[in-house]
Structure formats: C-alpha cells, structure tokens
Amino acid sequence: MEEKTCSLEMKIVSAEDLRFPRSPSLLIKKVSTFVTVRSDPYNSQSTGFDHDGGTCPYWDEKLHLPLPPTARSITVEVHCKAGLASGSKLVGSAEIPMSDIVEGYVPAYQLHFLSYRLRRDGQKNGIVNLSVRMVGPDCIGRSVEGEKVPLYGNRFAIGIPVGRFDSTCSKF
Known about the structure:
- 24% of the residues are buried.
- The longest helix has 5 residues, at 24-28.
- Residues 144-158 and 160-172 have low confidence and may be disordered.
- By secondary structure, the protein is mainly beta.
- The protein contains two helices and eight strands, in the order βαβββββαββ.
C-alpha cells in the first residue's frame, strides 16, 4: 500500500549581496554557488551550480522535499565552491519556520514568494529568494501545532515574529 505523504515544492530563484568566506582558493578562481534545503537531517535536496552569478547568483530551480510531520522549520543553505578539487564552504543559511508556509493568510497549497536573510556566524550575508508550496493529499488542512502567534495591535510580521511594537518606546 502506497503511503500518502506531504512534500514541499520549493523553487530556489536567486540570492543577492553574497559575501564569500575568505579563502586562498576562492580568491584565485571563479566561484560557483549552489543551495541545499533540508527538512530534517535525513531529507535534503540541492540545486545545480550557478557558475556566472558571482555575488548575485540565479538558479531558478525547482526542488521537491519530503516533509515529515514533525518538521518545524526548513533550513536553506547557500554554499560556494572554487574549482574542482576544493570543498564547498558555507556562505550563509536561513531557517524558514513552517508557520510561514502552513499558517497565515494564504493556503499552504498556494504558491508563497519568500525572501530570507542569510546569516553566517551570526552576521548578515545576503538574501535568498524562493517560492514554496505544499503538495500532496495530506497537506490540506495541515498546521503547526502550538505555533500560532497572536497579532498585536493589528500588526503582523513575516519571517521572525517581532512581538508587540510600542510606538512610545524610543529604543528598539
């Protein structure tokens, strides 16, 4: 009997303003970039290399990622590689909370266009642009248990919930 599963269809579009790690191998050669997405340690997919984009690579590649029922977030990592012999280095990563996909104002099975800040060692390092939607018979009506974030003052945040914004506060 075939198991009905839910999966994530992600289209990795592009990245912007990347800063590559300092390395002698990256200074000499042309840098190629690729993206890896993970729903858990056992489920990951990667794009092909972008050889020409430099700090603003463009992949426009669709990936299908199995989505376990316990997944709370999706990890997106941008890696770079120079030459055939060198290993890849992490440029930056972002965590996409499942609540950005399955809850909110757009149904999970419809296409969501998202941009996330990439970070490496806690520092900002570019932006990744992607689209995502859930596919499969078990996806309709799925939600992330216990992760509803209340609206404060009719304001909402996409990406990182910012909590209550008090306009009388001069410090942020």
